[in-house]
Amino acid sequence: MDRVHLLIRGRVQGVGFRYFAWERARELGLAGEVRNRPEGLVEVIAEGKRARLQELADAVRVGPRAARVSTVEETWSEAPPGYSGFRITG
Fold this sequence. Notes:
α1 (17-27) packs antiparallel against α2 (50-60). The protein has one domain (2-77): Alpha-Beta Plaits (2-Layer Sandwich), CATH 3.30.70.100. It has a 5-stranded mixed β-sheet, with helices on one face. The chain is built from 2 helices and 5 strands; from the N terminus they run βαββαββ. The protein has 90 residues and is α+β, with helices and mostly antiparallel strands.
């Protein structure tokens, strides 16, 4: 299974970014999690079909209206499924 780990920097906390990522991931049928990190960024780990993961990565580059994304760091890998469903964890 394909997996992408995304670290999103910019004005991404306090603007509905986790909900935005959660909603988009669920629409795409992906599993994983999204959370705020203490250093002010948002972290997404998602599993699924590569094309769907790429759609999620493209969506978080824009984010919700109030967000201002400056960079997105992507790390791609293959791994056995580790999640069921997609959740907001922190």
